[in-house]
Design brief:
Layout: E1 6-7, H1 9-20, H2 32-42, E2 45-46, H3 56-65, H4 71-79, E3 83-87, E4 91-95, H5 99-107, H6 112-123, H7 125-138, H8 161-172, E5 175-181, E6 184-189, H9 190-193, H10 205-220, E7 223-224, H11 228-232, H12 244-248, E8 252-257, E9 264-267, H13 271-278, E10 287-289, H14 300-307, E11 328-333, E12 336-346, E13 351-359, H15 367-384, E14 388-391, H16 397-409, E15 411-413, E16 419-421, E17 424-425
Parallel strand pairs: 1-8, 13-14, 14-17
Antiparallel strand pairs: 2-4, 3-4, 5-6, 7-9, 8-9, 10-11, 11-12, 12-13, 15-16
Protein name: Cytoplasmic protein
Length: 428
């Protein structure tokens, strides 16, 4: 048996970022087909409604595709049924060719939302059946098509009953999202939304379990067994022994990662990347602001083990208990998570506000780091349509002064194709 490859921690991070599409900046301006390729690379794109900066799914794609990424492309791909909405890690978009796999996984899923949908069906079967028949008769519907008042109790987030029923049927697979209108779901029968080419018999349970494991390992680049289940939120948590059959079949490759007590696993499709990583040939050169729901950081345990980055989403934490801010974006710089910033996009005023900025312990605010961060901030601000970058009073004065100076030096596209320094608004 050939010896297992050995990776340093930095090489493992580079392999992970390469698999996720975050190792190097985009080589060219993004096109619409790059959106679908990025979702296929990640296997899942988590959706979220918070848009204090931009909705999470758009932030994830912007980090990978750059300023040329246009959010409407994602809506178009959903409306064309190249992508579909499903429950996996959480509410996610997935490539439509994986629809059968997701249907099989959801059939036995212990995901909290799917379990809730099953209970609602058991409790309110008559009303849910009538709603499904109404959709069959009327065609695509939105929640706003129904006049029911919101309930007084807080169950199902205070949704009106039809909204809860539509969401339950979506989780159970009878309905699909035909398109989005201003982020509002338009629901229709799955049989009318799903393209004929994607109507495949779902795999059996064993085949689906293997496919989910392989997709997760492929998307992660390199992973410990214990982190795999979180990607699709499946159970149980896996052990290295659970993966032994896939290793023996050549589907997964076992590796050593220095500093990891457990072995790492790489999908065989990434064998060339693994060789390059082990040879020190993968150079991380990309700097980007990540969404709190980016696959790189959505597993807190994995982010801590791989990057030494202890990340907690605080938007659901009472304001007085927050350490770093409401919607905190991790800062990826050249293969490391070097800090986090709390941001807000003031679209009417054209201002991208950095409310707070925290570098990780031991990370020095040197000229190279500040230059990379200034460029990433400027690019993100332009993409948001808020080209004026404002550094708030909660940014430490020395850091605010140093970063402000670098922001003033970053060129941005000007009139007539000429370049001019980025605008820097007064701090608040």
């Amino acid at each position: 048996m050939a010896p297992r490859p050995t990776l340093t921690a930095a090489q493992a991070r580079a392999l992970h970022l390469a698999a996720q599409g975050l190792l190097t900046p985009p080589a060219r301006a993004a096109r619409r087909e790059d959106v679908l390729a990025a979702v296929r690379r990640m296997a899942l794109l988590q959706l979220d409604t918070i848009h204090v900066v931009a909705r999470s799914h758009h932030l994830v794609l912007h980090a990978r595709l750059g300023e040329a990424y246009r959010p409407e492309w994602l809506d178009e791909l959903l409306a064309e049924a190249a992508l579909f909405e499903t429950w996996a890690h959480e509410a996610c978009l997935a490539p439509v060719e994986e629809h059968g796999l997701h249907r099989r996984v959801l059939a036995t899923s212990q995901h909290w939302f799917v379990k809730r949908a099953r209970k609602l069906l058991a409790d309110e079967r008559e009303g849910m059946a009538a709603l499904l028949e109404e959709v069959r008769r009327r065609g695509p519907v939105k929640t706003s098509d129904f006049a029911s008042a919101r309930p007084r109790h807080g169950g199902w987030w205070g949704w009106k009953k039809e909204k809860a029923w539509l969401e339950a049927w979506l989780a159970l697979g009878e309905l699909m999202v035909a398109r989005r209108e201003r982020f509002q779901r338009v629901y229709d029968l799955a049989e009318r939304v799903l393209p004929a080419a994607a109507r495949r018999e779902p795999p059996d349970e064993a085949a689906a379990r293997q496919a989910v494991i392989e997709q997760s390992v492929r998307a992660l680049g390199v992973t410990q067994a214990r982190w795999i289940h979180d990607y699709f939120r499946t159970r149980p948590r896996l052990t290295p022994e659970d993966l032994r059959p896939l290793v023996e079949a050549g589907r997964l490759l076992e590796v050593r990662v220095r500093g990891w007590a457990a072995p790492g696993f790489v999908h065989r499709d990434h064998a060339p990347l693994l060789r390059r990583a082990a040879g020190g040939e993968l150079a991380a050169t990309h700097t980007a602001l990540l969404s709190p729901f980016d696959p790189v950081v959505w597993d807190r345990e994995r982010a801590l083990a791989m990057f030494g980055f202890d990340y907690r989403l605080e938007c659901y934490v009472p304001a007085r208990k927050r350490r770093h801010g409401y919607f905190v974006l991790p800062i990826l710089r050249r293969g490391a998570l070097v800090g986090r910033l709390d941001a807000k996009a003031h679209r009417v005023r054209g201002v991208f506000e950095v409310k707070a900025l925290h570098l990780e312990p031991g990370v020095a605010a040197g000229p190279a780091l500040l230059g990379d961060l200034a460029a990433a901030l400027t690019a993100s601000a332009r993409w948001h349509g808020t080209p004026q970058v404002r550094l708030g009073r909660r940014v430490a004065p020395p850091l605010r002064a140093a970063l402000g100076a670098r922001l003033a030096e970053v060129p941005s596209p000007g009139a007539g194709g000429r370049e001019r320094p980025a605008k820097l608004a007064r701090p608040v």
